[in-house]
Specification:
Helix content is 37%, strand content 15%. The protein is built from nine helices and eight strands. By secondary structure, it is of the alpha/beta class. The longest helix has 18 residues. Helix 7 runs parallel beside helix 8. It has a four-stranded parallel beta sheet. The chain has a four-stranded parallel beta sheet with strand order 6-5-7-8. It starts with 7 loop residues before the first strand and ends with a helix. Helix 5 links the parallel strand 5 and strand 6.
């Protein structure tokens, strides 16, 4: 972070995998300063797979630390925190953009009534109706694909592998998006749930020809909505 006043604070999971440009955890992903706060004990396993509600207080405490450092909005580094969206919103005194999945509302508004919003998530089995309901998207027609069986993506972002084969992961993401489009012909937009997916968003846009929303576009929304000051 530079010395310029930061507007957006990002609540980070405790991870060991690499954060390449485009990942929400890499400050070079943004043309403005952001401020990070790691939530101790909030591993991908506990947040994504276990949906551990015991972590909520830790996220609230970390959010309050960011507010004390004068951030004007807060986001997180995991779309699965949609499950706790209302709790974080009610507990923190600044707008909370908890999950990339909030953008499903926007994506739905941009496409025809006969079209569907596609979601690519880190783990389809772990993304439950409760997660969707957490951000109010449970009643939308959705087509969901997961990366849990993709070798490189799952090994790094779910399994904790510390080296990333970026080219292989990109191929896996493109394949998942194309398979999703083939299986559901009416998809008009795609939302990437996982905050590690934005480095591949442009590849997915080129491969599918539809708008793609991700964690980085969410942070830009947050920054602009509260003012660049």
């Amino acid at each position: 972070m530079t010395s310029e006043t930061s507007t957006v604070g990002i609540l980070m999971l405790e991870t060991t995998f690499p954060r390449i440009p485009g990942d929400i955890g890499n400050p070079a992903s943004f043309p403005f300063p952001v401020r990070y706060q790691t939530v101790k004990g909030a591993s991908p396993q506990k947040v994504v797979i276990d949906a551990d509600a015991g972590l909520v207080d830790g996220f609230i405490d970390a959010g309050r630390r960011l507010v004390a450092k004068d951030v004007k909005a807060i986001t997180t580094s995991c779309g699965f925190l949609a499950l706790f969206h209302r709790q974080l919103v009610e507990a923190l005194p600044v707008p909370v953009f908890t999950s990339s999945l909030l953008q499903v509302h926007l994506a739905r508004a941009l496409i025809r009534c006969d079209q569907t919003v596609g979601i690519i998530t880190a783990s389809k089995p772990a993304l439950t109706d409760a997660h969707l309901a957490g951000v109010g998207i449970q009643d939308y027609p959705l087509a969901i694909a997961g990366m849990e069986t993709s070798e490189e993506f799952s090994a790094v972002f779910l399994g904790g592998k510390e080296r990333l084969d970026e080219a292989k992961c990109r191929r896996e993401m493109e394949a998942a998006a194309c398979d999703l489009m083939s299986a559901h012909r009416g998809i008009g937009a795609i939302v990437l749930e996982c905050t590690n997916m934005p480095p591949y968003a442009d590849s997915i846009r080129r491969a599918t020809g539809v708008p793609v929303f991700d964690a980085v576009t969410l942070v830009h929304h947050a920054r602009l909505s509260v003012g660049a000051y």
